[in-house]
Design goal:
Layout lengths: L1 H20 L4 H7 L24 E6 L6 H13 L2 E6 L5 H14 L3 E5 L4 H11 L3 E6 L4 H13 L8 E3 L15
Parallel strand pairs: 1-2, 1-4, 2-3, 4-5
Length: 183
């Protein structure tokens, strides 16, 4: 108990001295630390470093579908995170569908890029992930064949992990039937 009491006194003394030191002029602090009594040097002008950080990104994997809930989810996330969106397109897609996706993004005020994935979609997705360290996550539709391959084959092949989350969102509304109770 005596040792605890001694330790508490030591701690409280240190706190009191620290608090008192906050109010000492700089000259006295320097002399207490063994420095000179001369006035402290003026701080050098700070160096301004411009950040080359890339903006945060969300990627929507699409074969032309996804203008409903998946795109809405991606837009909401972009608005909350201050992110931009990349449309990772694969397969043969009608230009009108691409225009529809881009128009929804434009109306929401989200900056977007359209990137075709090429013939080997899964390799294209993995390369995209590796080349974009600011990627927050991928959004996909569960019945999209490329997303299914990514979720069922590629991710398990990589030990169940890829560097970013894959969010699967159904594009259609769930079929729910409501029945009236006989109350």
């Amino acid at each position: 108990m005596k040792r605890l009491n001694t330790e508490l006194k030591r701690i409280l003394s240190a706190l009191a001295l620290q608090h008192a030191g906050d109010y000492l002029p700089m000259r006295e602090k320097l002399s207490a630390l063994g420095g000179s009594d001369a006035s402290p040097r003026q701080a050098e002008r700070p160096v301004v470093v411009t950040s080359s950080a890339q903006p945060k990104r969300v990627a929507l994997i699409s074969d032309g579908r996804g203008a409903g809930a998946p795109l809405d989810y991606a837009i909401d996330t972009c608005m909350q995170q201050g992110a931009q969106i990349d449309l990772l397109l694969h397969g043969e897609i009608e230009q009108s569908r691409i225009n529809e996706l881009e128009e929804q993004l434009r109306q929401a005020g989200v900056i977007c890029r359209t990137l075709p994935l090429g013939s080997d979609v899964t390799t294209g997705i993995l390369e995209y992930i590796c080349n974009h360290p600011s990627l927050l996550f991928l959004v996909g539709i569960p019945d999209d064949t490329s997303v299914r391959v990514l979720a069922e084959e590629v991710i398990p092949h990589h030990g169940g992990q890829i560097p970013v989350p894959l969010v699967l969102i159904e594009d259609r509304r769930p079929e729910v039937s409501y029945q009236r109770s006989a109350a």
